[in-house]
Target: DUF3558 domain-containing protein
Amino acid sequence: MKWRDFGCALAAAGVWLVSGCTPSSAPCCPETPPPPVPSTSPPTLPGAATDLPAAVPAAPPTPGCTLLTPAQVAAALGSAPLAAAPDDHDRACKFSDADGVLVLSIRVVDLPRALLGGPEQVTRLTASPSERIEDIPGLGDAAVFYTDPRKGTGLTLARGRGDRITSIDIAGYGPAKHTTRDVLVVLGFHAAAALPDPRT
Model:
């Protein structure tokens, strides 16, 4: 009987060793593995920010003097030849007569849509606070002719490109301070045609 009892004890010790347990390691090894630790990474939901298209970068600066030529301005105004000179780090271009008298300027800027709104809002902000504002259909995404007894006349147009807005302002000075609507609209179409392709 003693040998049988010894054999049973030996068999039990073998089971403990194979399973990695010892009589002193109470409780013995669990029969099932521990549950997996949940991942700390949040799930990716449909329509998450990673699915959104990248914002349109700011357009390279467009020099004002590339939008209108002295010949185009002189022809529209019916004046003698004019000279063009860049101003304000090339954002503006000033056209002067032979005596150096300023007759017209054009300015172009690239703006964030989130800050100022769409083309319509930009044109009205540029024309403000003129006495009279008139919408010009078919020119850019939005355009207005503005006039003021003190400031004179001008035309502003805007075109959208993703989350950016390109704004152009054309204004008369000196002898051309009250340039007519039709003349400024002609110059506005010239300037809009010279803008870089908005799809690039």
Q: What stands out?
A: The longest helix spans residues 2-18.
